[in-house]
Amino acid sequence: MGREHIVDLGRRAKAASRVLAGADGAAKNGALLVAADLLEERGADLLEHNAADLERARAGDAADVALDRLRLTAERVGAMADSLRQVAALGDPVGEVVEGWVRPNGLRVQRVRVPLGVVGVIYENRPNVTSDAAGLCLKAGNATMLRGSSSAAASNAAIVGCLREALAKVGLPEDGVVNVADTSHEAAVAFMQLNGMIDCLVPRGGHSLIASVREHATVPYVIDGDGNCHVYVDAGADLDMALSIVVNAKTQRPGVCNAAESLVVHEAVAGEFLPRLGEALSGVELRGDGASRALLPAMAVATEDDFGAEFLGPIMSVVVVADLDGAIDHITRYGSGHSEAIVTNDLGASERFCREVDAAAVVVNASTRFIDGGELGLGSEIGISTQKLHARGPMGLRELTCVKYVVRGNGQVRR
Amino acid sequence: MGREHIVDLGRRAKAASRVLAGADGAAKNGALLVAADLLEERGADLLEHNAADLERARAGDAADVALDRLRLTAERVGAMADSLRQVAALGDPVGEVVEGWVRPNGLRVQRVRVPLGVVGVIYENRPNVTSDAAGLCLKAGNATMLRGSSSAAASNAAIVGCLREALAKVGLPEDGVVNVADTSHEAAVAFMQLNGMIDCLVPRGGHSLIASVREHATVPYVIDGDGNCHVYVDAGADLDMALSIVVNAKTQRPGVCNAAESLVVHEAVAGEFLPRLGEALSGVELRGDGASRALLPAMAVATEDDFGAEFLGPIMSVVVVADLDGAIDHITRYGSGHSEAIVTNDLGASERFCREVDAAAVVVNASTRFIDGGELGLGSEIGISTQKLHARGPMGLRELTCVKYVVRGNGQVRR
Questions:
Q1: Predicted pLDDT of residue A223
Q2: Which of A242, A249, B347, B391 is 20 to 30 Å from the Cα of A99, by its Cα?
Q3: Domain count for chain B
Q4: What are the two backbone dihedrals, phi and then psi, of residue B139, each rounded to the nearest 5 degrees?
């Protein structure tokens, strides 16, 4: 379809974004609720399109885990619809006066929350991202340009069809959600270079997608990066609490970015803690440094790569450190800037950890699994940013907006 | 010097940034004040280095305007020192608790303002940018990597020398300010690709620099873009006020990004307004569309390029529109998203203009020249962002920071 077709889609999304930016909350919520109903009404149709995607994937020898990510079920479609309904129930971020003041010359200055414009989402094979992302973007007054993977092409097109129909039904422009059906690499590059059309690009996917965005994107983007999250068990930790937090952070849902991948233990408590942990995490392969293996010889040997890895599964790296400085150094060296936890009852240690560990979130005496838009009370999220600009940590509705200066005077000129 | 040398500088800046992030406000302010004194004490030395730069520039046939931008004088060095003292007097943004709340499970959530880490500044030939940028970055707790132009190499090196000496004198790491002395294109590209070292890149310069950043940068950046600012004189305008605002926005300092470049006039008042304007702006070349030239035949013909141009001098494009929609359409088509003003006493028109014009700042009944960090009350600024992510409009100290989640619990785990 070529670059021109993608530029044309970009122009249409941009034009639609101007209408959506001024749309009432009632209209946006109406579209979300209609879309939710349509997803459920068209459930059989969606599953049929999804079955075609699954068949192609199977013919291409896709792994079971990839097939599971791709698969829609009636229950999953229901969850997509419910997610849109939940977004409709959230407060509207647009129009919030973030702050305001009056200058000595009488100028009244306000910073007002406004939509970004067009949000581009480039993502891998979970079809639910299609409706989740577009729903959040719409609620924040943005048009959405979606570019999913070839594996989910039929499912994504069917879901976008429901969203566009919903927009039209409430009188909003259907180009408020557009789908880039061309899943070639060239199309992805053209998409990442829609300057003047895409105001913010959000990539959702693995290393190679993120690397491609860094290499090719010329539009502004926010990276939803890896989570190599650590739990540090300090000398001052309550070891029962530490055990419960490490087990939860590692095993409650190992395949997500805020699960813990790495354990750091103060040497003063390692002798007591590691054997207890070995028992509690019997289903997890622990890979340790020399000091930790001396205390728990059953552990495998950790390589340098293990300390930096996001396993997303039942593996955890372990290191014993001499003190808090050693823990902070280890986390600084290997961490990915996502979520880092300390377990301690030592106030000084907790304060230093919070101040000196450079991450989107630092956590004291709780599981890293709480660093998530829903758990922190932001409502839904479009991803978790591990970069520092614009958004850091869970990206909710507010992170899908920006702020505009509105300055009102009565004839002021500058001297 | 090659890429490895630049990577080494990046590592040193990153290490220094960890110390600066935890530095007391008193230490940072001390360094700023010492640096201000050193700049003045070393004034003669700075001027000597600057003279060498000027001589090379003259030998290379630099234009007068370029020589003026490059030139330091005792007065300009004094202004650089005073600017550092003013930054020292501003409040410290680091550590501000931006917001906080408690979750139903007892988790206490805070968003705390923290430094970005390392700010990279790539800029063209004004040497004062060296101290201005590094001073602001330091106050916000960041290390600064500076990469100025070859034309100002000797001046920049001398200024950075003062800043580094000041850091060392107060016990802060001198690598808190590092200078990339290699002014080759290859060095610029390597600089823009210091992932994991530069947390935020701020380019300060013209089109070609911005284009190069968009093409090569793989680190996050904030664009300080063009200002094609419009003043729209509505049917409901007080024409005396409109005249005074247009004259001020165009002529008070024509060479800066918040000066007006384009005038849009409602047809109902154009017949009265344009002849008055022609007289008041007698030193400015007006370039108009057909409708405006019919009312003021002395005007030159505006080309399509004129409507999109940032003249930065005594030229202004003029267009007559049928209504507010025509004005908003014209600004949407040709504006650069910087600062856009309306002059009107019509409440509905002012509200629609504020809502529908997509720019960093919209201004009602005042000059566009107020869209500046100092004039809006933000203190000093490192630039004016025309992008939407992270910072929009003047970038002050706050825009040189980011926010970290700090979550405190007492053993919470996720169910």
A1: 87
A2: B347
A3: 2
A4: -60, -35
Distance CA(B220)–CA(B212), nearest Å, equals 14
Measuring CA to CA, which residue among A385, A335, A389 is closest to residue A357? Answer: A335
Tell me what pLDDT residue A65 has: 85
Q: Is the pLDDT of residue B274 over 80?
A: yes
3-class secondary-structure state, position A74:
helix
CATH of the domain at B30: 3.40.605.10
Question: For residue B340, what are the domain limits?
Answer: 229-375
Domain assignment present for A381:
no
Sign of CA dihedral A314, A319, A320, A324: negative
Across the interface, which of B249, B402, B406 has its CB nearest the CB of A362? B406
User: What's the whole-number mean pLDDT along residues B100-107?
Assistant: 98
Q: What is the mean pLDDT of residues B91-105?
A: 97
Contact flag A367-B403 (C-beta cutoff 8 Å): no
Closest by CA to B153, choosing from B176, B187, B115, is B187
Q: Which residue has the tokens 């409009």?
A: B393
The type of residue at A201 is: L
**Ranges of residues in chain A whose predicted pLDDT is under 50:** none
β-sheet bridge partners, residue A204: A123
Computed over its alpha carbons, how large is the radius of gyration of chain A?
A: 24
CB contact burial A384-395 (16+ within 10 A = b; e otherwise)? bbbbbbbbbbbb
Which of B244, B278, B250, B361 is CA-nearest to residue A413? Answer: B244
- Cβ of B33 under 8 Å from any chain A Cβ? no
Ranges assigned E (strand) in B106-259: 108-115, 118-123, 143-147, 177-179, 200-204, 229-233
Q: Burial, B241: exposed, middle or buried (Cβ in 10 Å; 0-12, 13-18, 19+)?
A: buried
Is A200 in CB contact (< 8 Å) with chain B? yes
Q: Please report which residue ranges of B170-224 form alpha helices under DSSP H.
A: 185-192, 207-216
Cα distances from A374 to residues A58, A354, A379, B103, B108, in angstroms, run 34, 22, 5, 11, 15
- Chain A segment 338-367 residues within 8 A of B by beta carbon are 350, 354-356, 358-367
Give the pLDDT score at B226: 85
> CA nearest A147: which of A78, A212, A59, A71?
A212
| Phi/psi-derived region of residue A312, left when phi > 0, alpha when psi is between -120 and 50, beta in every other case | left
Closest residue of chain A to B215, computed from CA coordinates: A218
Instruction: Specify the DSSP class assigned to residue A293.
Output: H
Indicate yes or no: CB of A388 within 8 angstroms of CB of B117.
yes
Residue B139 belongs to a domain: yes
DSSP code per residue over A83-107: HHHHHHHSPP-TT-EEEEEE-TTS-
- CATH code of B251's domain: 3.40.309.10
Instruction: Choose among A14, A26, A11: nearest CA to A142.
Output: A14
Under an 8 A CB cutoff, do A109 and B360 touch?
Answer: no
- Cβ atoms of A361 and B374 within 8 Å: the answer is no
User: Do B362 and A222 lie within an 8 Å CB cutoff?
Assistant: no
Confidence category of residue B197, pLDDT binned at 50, 70, 90: very high
Query: Long-range contacts made by residues A1-8, C-beta under 8 angstroms, separation at least 24?
Result: A1/A181, A1/A182, A1/A187, A2/A182, A3/A186, A3/A187, A3/A190, A5/A182, A6/A180, A6/A182, A6/A187, A6/A190, A6/A191, A6/A194, A7/A190, A7/A194, A7/A197
CB proximity under 8 Å: A 308-337 to B: 332
Average pLDDT over residues B184-210: 93
Selecting from A361, A370, A407 the residue whose C-beta is nearest the C-beta of B414 gives: A370
Distance separating alpha carbons of residues A398 and A96, to the nearest angstrom:
10
A198 and A93 in a single domain? The answer is yes
B216 close to B192: Cβ distance less than 8 angstroms: yes
Tokens representing residue B59 in the block: 């030998």
Chain A residues whose beta carbon lies within 8 Å of the beta carbon of residue B116: 388-389
